[in-house]
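tRNA glutamyl-Q(34) synthetase GluQRS
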Amino acid sequence: MKERSEDADPECRSVFRFAPSPNGYLHLGHAYSALFNVKLAQACGGKMLLRIEDIDSERSRRSFEAALIEDLRWLGFNWTGAPRRQSEHMADYRAALDRLARRGLAYPCFCSRGEIARACAARTNWPRDPDGVFLYPGACRDLSVGERNARIEAGARWSFRLDMEKALIEIGKPLTYMEFHEGDAGVKVTAEPSAWGDALIGRRDAPASYHIACVLDDHAQGVTDVVRGLDLDAATGLHRLLQALLGLRTPQYHHHRLVLDDQGRKLSKSKSSPSLRDLRARGVSAAQIREELSRQMQIAL
């Protein structure tokens, strides 16, 4: 995994990527992130890539993918080469998960979200991860190999979890990365992967979680700079650990502020935030959107 893959361009030192999920229409938050990527790439003469994060087969749609590509081109966002689709690289994610399992760093978990939530809610002040989800209490961590295999052979549904304690022991040292917030000089940050506990890295409904697919894709595409919203800032600690465990390169990270609605809430597809298509249908131009984002975020796009 340490070699530079065929997806990477050896002639370009700085590589950026915008990586939307085709599970709905793009909104202003996506537009800001895409244009912020472009701004940084242009500033250093870097290359801009597009990745389609479609590992969630139940929610991802080719119609949404076509729509987001159309919206990005209308916005003025351009990229090099064909988009990379995660759905075409599932075998790579599974192979990485199997490598971790063979080293005793990942284990099958048979607990449902509801079971975990009920068990943790019954305990006083049970800790939560940065996303506000109860940390996994470890019910399946110490199952014997025989019991795990018996459950799997019986058809029990299961997911892969990272054994955080074993993973940190194997690394044996603090992990760091460079962080650049908007307009700030880079600072070296010490990763805090333990905040996620035994994180899910392979889901029941997909061969991999967002976390492991993301770090493998960034490596395969030769990404040097990851530009994304502050809502993913805390995930960087877990990503840094996975990079170390799998022998992957570590990009620089740029986490930007979020575009908020009139109530100060993060824009979201699930909350039916106005999409770029809605705005375009109302007669809003791409230039007006760029100007509005510049005004809101106080940077020149």
